[in-house]
């Protein structure tokens, strides 16, 4: 393939025509001058006011709707956090060799609370295993005379 000569980009094809005078260009400039002189653009204030009111209404509606977790689900989340905190304390006690019977009794009591409200069979099985293990550790402490 042979390249012959070079042409400037854009020389072939359509050429651009110069804009003629003020066709449609003066409207924006006139609007800007009227704003600078203290006038207010027509329609702009009404649109701004309506959007401000609708934004305020939306915020008030969100505040009135409440938290998405205001339900038994929120109570379940809080209960799960407290169970996890108790389990971490039991783990730390087991690792350090200073597990107290009171900590295990708190865990067993916490696991016994509202057990009937759990519908998930897998979660119920996990909680049963945790409860059993905590009771076994309590029995060990009782046998050794540490409680």
TrEMBL record:
**Tell me, which GO biological process terms does this entry list?**
bacterial-type flagellum organization
Source organism's superkingdom?
Answer: Bacteria
Show the segment(s) annotated as Disordered: 1-48
In this chain, composition skew of type Low complexity spans 37-48
Give the organism the record lists.
Answer: Thalassospira lohafexi
Per UniProt, the keywords (alphabetical) are: Cell projection, Cilium, Flagellum
Output this protein's name: Flagellar assembly protein FliX
């Amino acid at each position: 393939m042979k390249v012959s000569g070079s042409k400037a980009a854009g020389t072939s094809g359509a050429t651009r025509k110069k804009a003629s005078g003020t066709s449609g260009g003066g409207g924006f400039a006139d609007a800007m001058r009227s704003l600078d002189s203290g006038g207010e653009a027509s329609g702009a204030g009404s649109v701004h006011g309506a959007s401000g009111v609708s934004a305020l209404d939306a915020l008030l509606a969100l505040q009135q709707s409440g938290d998405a977790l205001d339900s038994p689900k929120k109570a379940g989340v809080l209960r799960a956090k407290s169970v996890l905190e108790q389990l971490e304390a039991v783990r730390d006690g087991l690792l350090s060799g200073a597990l107290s019977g009171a900590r295990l009794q708190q865990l067993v009591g916490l696991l016994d609370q509202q057990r009937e409200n759990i519908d998930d069979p897998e979660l119920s099985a996990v909680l049963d295993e945790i409860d059993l293990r905590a009771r076994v550790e309590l029995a060990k402490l009782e046998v050794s005379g540490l409680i």
